[in-house]
């Protein structure tokens, strides 16, 4: 918990409520495996929280396939300056996420029930995040159209990060991305460090769609300050 206190700071009590909710309701509803309950902090919460160091101040973020809220809810806890949309197509998961938002009092979060490919015309955000959603080759097709020119995809990946980046090269070239790199964040806080694939989106005309700011859809839930 010493590391958790260092990472979350004053927001640690909120993170603890989220961890308790995950360990009980998350397991009971099948959003995380029962074996994960005993290793929530290092494997999940801290692993996701350290990603915040790669996100600029006051960024608008969409978390693709948010599931149980990893990393989107964690980022909202540790970085209240971020404006985060949790994008998730399954009803039982969006129900869980809305309950999280209410329980934790996260005023910087909106939950949206949708697939990324169905809302491409509605988003032009600074950062897209994703964890354990799909191989990078497929994830890039969903994420890059949601970004403004110069926006970044931050994909949390494991040991195959470099291989996935190589396999995705044809798709990334097709989208005209500006740059790609592998990052490791959280050294000394989580072992192993969290591995990120960072992909910077190219020009608007290369992405090939009209860029628009996110708008709220019917049935979505938003906490406003």
From TrEMBL:
GO terms for cellular component: cytosol. SUPFAM superfamilies: S-adenosyl-L-methionine-dependent methyltransferases (SSF53335). It comes from the Bacteria. It is an enzyme of class 2 (transferase). Its EC number is 2.1.1.-. S-adenosyl-L-methionine binds at residues 65, 70, 116-117, 131. CDD domains: AdoMet_MTases (cd02440). Its main location: cytoplasm. It is found in: Cytoplasm. GO terms for molecular function: rRNA (guanine-N7-)-methyltransferase activity. Belongs to the methyltransferase superfamily. RNA methyltransferase RsmG family. NCBIfam families: rsmG_gidB. This is Ribosomal RNA small subunit methyltransferase G. It comes from Actinomadura coerulea. The lineage of its organism: Bacteria, Bacillati, Actinomycetota, Actinomycetes, Streptosporangiales.
């Amino acid at each position: 918990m010493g590391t958790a206190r260092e990472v979350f700071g004053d927001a640690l009590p909120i993170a603890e409520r989220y961890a308790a909710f995950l360990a009980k309701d998350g397991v009971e509803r099948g959003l995380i495996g029962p074996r994960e309950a005993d290793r929530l902090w290092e494997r999940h919460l801290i692993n996701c929280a350290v990603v915040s160091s790669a996100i600029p101040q006051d960024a608008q973020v969409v978390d693709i396939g948010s599931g149980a809220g990893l990393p989107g809810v964690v980022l909202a806890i540790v970085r209240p300056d971020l404006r985060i949309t949790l994008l998730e197509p399954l009803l039982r998961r969006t129900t869980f996420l809305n309950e999280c938002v209410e329980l934790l009092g996260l005023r910087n979060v909106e939950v949206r029930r949708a697939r990324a490919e169905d809302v491409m015309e509605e988003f032009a955000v600074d950062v897209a995040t994703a964890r354990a959603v799909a191989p990078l080759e497929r994830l890039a097709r969903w994420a890059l159209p949601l970004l403004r020119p110069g926006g970044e995809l931050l994909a949390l990946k494991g040991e195959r990060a470099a291989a996935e980046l190589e396999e995705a090269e044809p798709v990334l070239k097709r989208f005209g991305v500006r740059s790609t790199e592998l990052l490791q964040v959280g050294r000394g806080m989580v072992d192993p460090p969290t591995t990120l694939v960072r992909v910077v989106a190219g020009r608007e005309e290369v992405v090939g769609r009209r860029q628009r700011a996110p708008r709220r859809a019917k049935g979505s839930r938003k906490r406003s300050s």
